[in-house]
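pinned: reference chain
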Amino acid sequence: MALTKILIVDDNKKNAELLEAYLIPLEADVTIAPDGIEALKMIEQDKPDLILLDIMMPRMSGFEVCRRIKGSESYRDIVVVLVTALTDAGDIERGVDCGADEFLSKPIQKNELISRVRTLLRIKRTHCGNELEKNADLYGRNGKRFPVTTNLACDFRRQPCISHASRLA
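pinned: its structure tokens
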């Protein structure tokens, strides 16, 4: 079985290394990108299963990186977790609008990070392995591909787990 691939995107090297150290118990293949532009290049070369994405970065914000990932047919199934010190409701709404699957607030707590990453990866495996097959008609009606965006998990501190589309409605 292949190792889970996790990409950490943070312009602060110490923050990225701390997240990497926290993820050691998961025995994942962890790589680090110093900014959003490098992250997009790395994704093209080796698609990760999950991305821990800082929001406030130079060159390209985490919001923009997330929007590009979720707007891509090839990459929209990557789980994107926004890692942020931002707490304003408008920032959370902006994250939802760009397609983020989850939010983690800084300072990151090791146990919370590991728990959420494990849960998100388990849901992704179940979702990709079962739901896409069961709901294939959503992808192929009349020969067209319809984008189906699901929020794989939610921030349990804010509200019960509901779909991304329901939160936007």
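why pinned: Residues 131-169 have pLDDT under 50 and may be disordered. The first strand starts at residue 5 and ends at 9.
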